[in-house]
Amino acid sequence: MSEITGNLRAVKARIAAATEAADRPDGSCELIAVSKTKPASAVAEAAGDGQRHFGENYLQEALAKQDELAGEADELVWHFIGAIQSNKTRDIATRFDWVHTLEREKIARRLSDQRPDGRPPLNVLIQVNLQNEPTKAGVSPDEVVSLANAIAPLPGITVRGLMAIPAPATDHDEQVRVFRSLAAINETLKSGINTVDTLSMGMTDDMPAAIEAGATFVRIGTAIFGARDSGHRG
Q: Between the N and C ends of the chain, which has fewer C-beta atoms within 10 Å?
C-alpha cells in the first residue's frame, strides 16, 4: 500500500469515527482531499483508491492537473477553494463543480454568466469570516443572508451553503462553539433558500469538532498528501 493510500484510508477512518461519535449517519460528511501544490499523479493515486472530491487553491495549477487527468478521471469532483480574481472567473465557471470562497455579488454574477450552457449550475458556498479577522477573507456573519438572497436567483449558480476557516483554537469545546455559530447561520439561510444543505468546515486539527457541529465537507490536505511543496503556480 502506498503512503497516500494509507493516509487517505486513515483520514476516512477518522471521519467515520467522528461521525459515529456525533451520532450522525454514516457518510453524512464527505472528504475533500486538498491537492494544491501536489502533482496530478498524487490526485490519480488517491482517485485510484476511491477518492472523488478534490480541492484546489491555485487556478493555473488546477487546470494543468485537470488536463493531465482528462479521460482517466472524468468522475472526479473539483472544488475551487482559493481566492477568486475577476479575470479568472471564466475558467472557474467552466472547469469546476464547486466554489467554496464566494464573498462578492459581482463575482457570483460573473460565475453565473460564464457557466457553460448544458452544464448544471455551479455549486457555490459563501465564505464567512466568523470572527471578523482583519487578515482573513469572507463576509461578516451579519452580511451572509443579504448576499445569499441577492445571488440565489442567478441561473448559472446554486447557493448550497457556507464555508469558514475559524481562528486556530486548541480547545475542542471552543472549536465546536465556533463551528456551531456557522451552522446556525446556515439554518437561517435554509428557511429562505431551499437549495442550502452544505457546511464546508474543518481541517486536520479541528475536524472532529467540525463534524460534531454538522460539517458536510471537511477539507484535508497534508494528512493525505504530506507536507506542502514549497512552490506553486497561481
A: N
- Cβ–Cβ contacts within 10 Å for residue 15, how many? 23
111 belongs to a structural domain? yes
Neighbours of 129 (CB within 10 A): 20
**Residue 45 domain flag:** yes
Domain assignment present for residue 198? The answer is yes
Q: How far apart are CA 135 and CA 12, in angstroms?
A: 31
Asked if residue 112 lies in contact with residue 154, where contact means CB atoms within 8 angstroms, the answer is yes
Q: How many domains does the chain have?
A: 1
pTM of this structure: 0.95
Q: Structural domain of residue 13, as residue ranges? A: 3-225
Between CA 223 and CA 4 the distance in angstroms is 9
* Domain assignment of residue 217, yes or no: yes
Residue type, 45: E
- pLDDT band (50, 70, 90) for residue 218: very high
The three cell numbers locating residue 163: 464555508
